Amino acid sequence: MRVTIGVFGALIAASAVTAQDSPIIHDGEFNFLSAQFGEEWAAQDVRIDSRLTELRDANNGKPPNILYVLIDDVSFGLMGNRAMNYVAGFDTPNINDFASEGLALMRMYTEPSCTPTRTAFLTGSHPVRAGQEEVKVALVGEGLAGEAVTIAEVLKQSGYNTAHVGKWHQGDIEESFPHNQGFDVAFFPVHQQVQLSLMTPEAAAAGNLNGWHPSTQSSEFAIDQRFKPYGLVTGLEAKAGEQAREVGLEAGEEWTQEHYERMNATYQRQVLEQLERLAGEEEPFFLQYWPLYPLNFTSSDQQRSRNGGFMADKMEQLDDWFGDLMAKVDELGVAENTLVVFMADNGIFKQYSPNSGMIELIYRGGKAEHLEGGVRVDAFVRWPQAIEGGSYAGDIIHVSDLYTTLARVAGGMEFIPRDRVIDGVDQTALLLEGEGNSRRDYVYIYEGPVLRSIVKQEFKMHMPAPGVPGAAAPVFNILRDPRETTPDIGGSLWSGASFQDMAKRHAKMIAKYPHRPIGKDEPYGGIENLRPESELARKTFASWQDE
């Protein structure tokens, strides 16, 4: 599809009209804030629209290219800062340089684990609203539903060319694959690093995998030969409208750490290739790169970092690759009008700490937890034409906000669906006018389907257990107690009713717009060259589904 400059202008105009006629449905807390600040925000939006128009005019009517890099399991403070590099014992000079060239989002919240965070980004809503509540390891016959409207689909309708490279982990069914969710091309594994780096003979030998690999125990009295995952599909490549094809593993071949290393190197090569291809086309592009590193479960023959942890070392490798990616952006001459976001998806995989080399710093907790260490991450945004380099923002922002913000920057607000709650708040004002311009001062934090805590300003309530009154729920001042160790129940007694009101506003919108079901289908559909062992795994899975 070729979109002319004139069409972009029409899209922008249509977006403004449509957005006024049919507003985006937001959560109750945003509506509560909007009732207080709506007029002020509307006046600011006039300035923002004018600035976006100026930026497009300076680029022949084109909105910015968008490059989104999301990495796995790195808690706040572990990258982007030379001093913290010294503390942690591994270096990220390229990420540090990048952080200094744009806006550092000092209070970015995500979901507690990788699949939910990615769903929040893709759909602009808390993942529980799409049934994507948790990380899945093996065959489940579930995934992101076809009725989801992803940011890739929004940008595609806005005239962008789209490509995905790297981790996906949104399900093992055909409708959930990226080339069926708005991406023109996609290079991705079906599952994630538990399969790709942990379920290997090398991880078993390293003592990081117990019971699954036959080398770890005899299992002489095992009867069920289908208990342990087997025949899992690894890496796929696909184009929109076509079937996917598995690459990198032959029938009967055992997946090893060498395959995993090769897969990572392949994705790095492919993201550079896709960047070069997209930069040479007339349309703006959305390129999404979700590396598998630094998540890793074995050590190399010689570790390179001072830390020496098996994930810390891969963090240094990833930093090299990110530096190569940014150098390519510069080489292709698209840096000025390319909005680049670099961030992590959640906190460290602390079950493997400290041997992984990834450690808790200021915030307590990690992956799968609602504590700050599980959901606070480093996040940096660079857009040289529009964002002041070396700037910081202490405002609260949630990963779902990127959905609405990127849609507005791209001129595609009209393509955001109006039949469901969009938790993502438009944060364009924060990007363009800097610190103090966020339109949220709150976050709801889920663990799976359960609301576990609510953040409001510098306060955080851990939700009370059933039967416990809100006044007795633990409340923390995150600035004074970043590790959430000393609840201030007495001193924050005033907040109990306010937090309960927030929970009620949230629940009322759920009642009005119920959660949508997760997509369900036979796993591994739409793959043209399934290996026999994958066919067997799928057949075994299907054998008991209707019982």
From TrEMBL:
One of its GO terms (molecular function) is metal ion binding. It is an enzyme of class 3 (hydrolase). Residues 1-19 form the signal peptide. Keywords: Calcium, Hydrolase, Metal-binding, Signal. Transmembrane segments: none annotated. Pfam families: Sulfatase. It comes from the Bacteria. Its EC number is 3.1.6.1. Residues 64-411 form the Sulfatase N-terminal domain. InterPro entries: Alkaline_phosphatase_core_sf (IPR017850), Sulfatase (IPR050738), Sulfatase_CS (IPR024607), Sulfatase_N (IPR000917). Belongs to the sulfatase family. PANTHER family: ARYLSULFATASE, ARYLSULFATASE FAMILY MEMBER. This is Arylsulfatase. It comes from Ruegeria atlantica.
